[in-house]
Amino acid sequence: MKKLREFKLCNKCNKELSFNKFRERKDTGWKDINNKFRYSYCRKCEKKRFKEAYKKDPIPQMLSNSKIRAKTKKLPHNITSDDIREVWPKDNICPVLKKPFEMGFKSGKTKSMAPSLDKIIPSKGYTKGNIVVISDIVNRLKSDASLENLKKIINFYIKK
């Protein structure tokens, strides 16, 4: 039987930290004083590792997030990582704005040009043939406005 611990050495940064600095797990890991399993990396190191992995390849996280959104909104979801790779712009440029994606984690100034998975027809969900990768700002504009309102905005600025 494993010994229950209040403090643990993070396997990444080698700092001894309180158990609550490590995220809980369901089935395996080290056990804290409350007999709960914990990850071996502290939250800070885990977040850093996640950001680095996302920067190298955002597709697994995009897929995971799309599954969560589909389940929450009760939408169909049958895409895979390969389906996202298939629609990913080969030049890493947003097909709408014609600007390069910024591959950092979605925060601060990189958020607007971060790649974002979009449903072409929202009610069809995340299904093969109904997804495209565009910049986050384009996706947000599209989701917040109807096509009719987008046309009104464009027409307003064309007249100026």
Rounded Rg: 21 Å
* Outline type: elongated
Secondary-structure class: alpha+beta
Based on DSSP secondary structure assignment, what is the total number of beta strands? Answer: 6
Strand content: 5-15%
Overall mean pLDDT stands at 89
Helical content (DSSP H or I, runs of 4+): 25-40%
Structure description:
There is one protein chain. The protein has helices at residues 43-56, 59-73, 81-87, 136-144, 147-159; strands at residues 7-9, 16-18, 30-31, 37-38, 115-119, 131-135. It is an alpha+beta fold and 160 residues long. A two-stranded antiparallel ribbon has the order 1-2. The protein starts with 6 loop residues before the first strand and ends with a helix. The chain is built from five helices and six strands.
Using brief descriptors, characterize the structure shown.
two-stranded antiparallel sheet, 160 residues, alpha+beta, elongated
Secondary structure: elements and pairs:
Elements (H helix, E strand, L loop, with lengths): L6 E3 L6 E3 L11 E2 L5 E2 L4 H14 L2 H15 L7 H7 L27 E5 L11 E5 H9 L2 H13 L1
Antiparallel strand pairs: 1-2, 3-4, 5-6
